[in-house]
């Protein structure tokens, strides 16, 4: 025991070397953010700020990290998107993934999340049903009806004013599940959702774009949009994003695609709905194509908060992959009821904002730092995509 002490006393440089060795080892094996104050400050601010913009900003920050992990997964199994297989065969080498693993529903809905409708094929996951429970101008569109309309039926039962507009060019109306007493708040037409309008007298089936149909109904918003159109969703949503974003091309709507370096990026519009509940049918899709499509949806402000593969289809088609999956998206752009309190009651929201600002020490008319943080988070996510 006295030997090391004696050596250090006789040779101080050994003592200095020992101290440096211990400090270096501590820094080497400690987490990279051990001395980072910003990490803890961010967590503390998030924990204290429970406002709706703060919750959305926090979810957006977490979603941004998922984009980095997606790119890492592509490099691992690709190494580029063109080499990634949608559903790898069960043989060596055996990469344990499916296409859905690249697109997890990690965005946290800032409200309650629940599955409404029948169990099994027919029910849907929705975010914040309470937000539209008493909304006077609640509007729901449902494209692609089935014999099971329990989703639409329960939504009608649990809301006071929602009107459900159902469309399908093969069905005769809503399936079972919609109570007769509530059918006065429904409307059905035999038509389909298309990428372009073709509903003249000689057209059959008659196809409508979402913009044209909303204009015909006199609607400027849709609270919940449900789409199940058997594989046509890809061309329909591409056209929809371009139509409502007003950019003129899909390439302009996809972050990092198209455009010239240094050229100003035009302002993107908001899709006219608060939530999108959709079943994807990836028959004959290549991963590179589906990735570009998904990034287009992200660029338009859609964030997945829940998913569910169609196990009924997988059971009946065991020789193919799990090619059908239901996703629920929240639209974080625009001014819909799920991301803004102003949509509930504009006048009440203004009063509440003034009172909240006064309580938080923010004078009316001054910029709210919580909103600035939310805008900054959205900007960070866009930069990551580019």
Automatic annotation (TrEMBL):
Region (Disordered): 346-370
InterPro entries registered for this protein in UniProt: Methyltranfer_dom, METTL24
Descriptive protein name: Methyltransferase domain-containing protein
Positions with biased composition (Low complexity): 354-366
Organism: Daedalea quercina L-15889
Domain Methyltransferase: 101-239
């Amino acid at each position: 025991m006295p030997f090391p002490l004696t050596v250090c006393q006789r040779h101080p440089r050994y003592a200095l070397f020992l101290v440096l060795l211990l400090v270096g080892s501590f820094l080497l094996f400690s987490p990279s953010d051990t001395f980072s104050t910003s990490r803890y400050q961010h967590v503390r601010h998030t924990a204290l700020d429970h406002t709706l913009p703060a919750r959305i900003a926090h979810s957006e920050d977490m979603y941004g990290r998922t984009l980095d992990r997606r790119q890492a997964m592509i490099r691992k199994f690709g190494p580029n998107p063109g080499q990634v297989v949608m559903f790898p065969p069960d043989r060596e080498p055996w990469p344990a993934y499916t296409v859905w693993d690249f697109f997890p529903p990690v965005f946290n809905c800032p409200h309650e999340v629940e599955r409404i409708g029948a169990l099994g094929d027919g029910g849907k996951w929705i975010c914040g049903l309470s937000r539209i429970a008493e909304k006077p101008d609640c509007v729901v569109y449902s494209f692609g009806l089935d014999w099971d309309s329990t989703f639409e039926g329960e939504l009608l039962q649990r809301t006071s004013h929602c009107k459900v507009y159902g469309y399908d060019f093969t069905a005769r109306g809503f399936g079972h599940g919609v109570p007769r007493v509530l059918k006065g708040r429904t409307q059905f037409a035999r038509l389909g959702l298309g990428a372009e309008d073709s509903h003249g007298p000689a057209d059959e089936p008659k196809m409508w774009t979402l913009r044209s149909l909303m204009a015909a109904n006199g609607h400027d918003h849709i609270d919940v949009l449900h789409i199940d159109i058997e594989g046509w969703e890809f061309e329909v949503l591409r056209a929809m994003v371009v139509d409502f974003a007003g950019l003129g091309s899909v390439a302009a709507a996809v972050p990092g695609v198209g455009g010239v370096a240094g050229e100003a990026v035009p302002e993107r519009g908001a899709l006219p709905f608060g939530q999108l509940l959709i079943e994807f049918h990836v028959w004959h899709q290549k991963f590179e194509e589906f990735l570009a499509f998904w990034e287009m949806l992200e660029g338009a402000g859609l964030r997945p908060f829940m998913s569910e593969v169609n196990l009924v289809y997988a059971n009946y088609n065991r020789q193919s992959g799990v090619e059908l999956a239901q996703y629920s998206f929240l639209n974080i752009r625009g001014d819909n009821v799920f991301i803004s309190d102003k949509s509930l009651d504009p006048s009440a929201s203004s009063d509440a904002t003034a009172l909240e600002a006064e309580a938080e020490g923010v004078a009316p008319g001054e910029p709210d730092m919580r909103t600035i943080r939310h805008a900054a988070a959205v900007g960070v996510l866009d930069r990551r995509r580019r």
